[in-house]
């Protein structure tokens, strides 16, 4: 099957396309960065550990129905619609044989949270495919967006 390379797209309705800047550009870079922080005794955020996109991104394309957001805007993304919650059975628990009143083993579960953002590749770069409802606010003035505090950005 031939790979399709996208150079430019026109999104529909209330969709927007943004950059997808992340903490690290590759798995090797992520592993090295996490190992360095651990060796220095620094805290590692969940977003950094999972290499999630930053919440501040640049808008690359907007659909015809989108109001107030235009190409080139720096926006703060609200990731709530992309949160996945999975129930995972707990392993290595000290209380493996907990029985309920009927004598059946009680399954110990906990919630595991993760974010799944829809993406595409344009001109060889990963981009987020979002809706206008996902934009919390637009940065209009200031140096507030610095792609978080990251030495590689």
Could you walk me through the main structural features you see in this protein, from its secondary elements to its overall organization?
The chain has 153 residues and is mostly beta strands. The chain has a domain at 15-82 and 117-139: GroES chaperonin (10 Kd Chaperonin, Protein Cpn10, Chain O). Helices cover 12% and strands 30% of the residues. Strands 6-7-1-2-3-8 form a six-stranded antiparallel sheet, with no helix packed on it. A two-stranded antiparallel sheet has the order 4-5. A hairpin with a 2-residue loop joins strand 6 (119-122) and strand 7. The protein starts with 14 loop residues before the first strand and ends in a 14-residue tail after the last strand. The model is unreliable at 147-153 (pLDDT under 50).
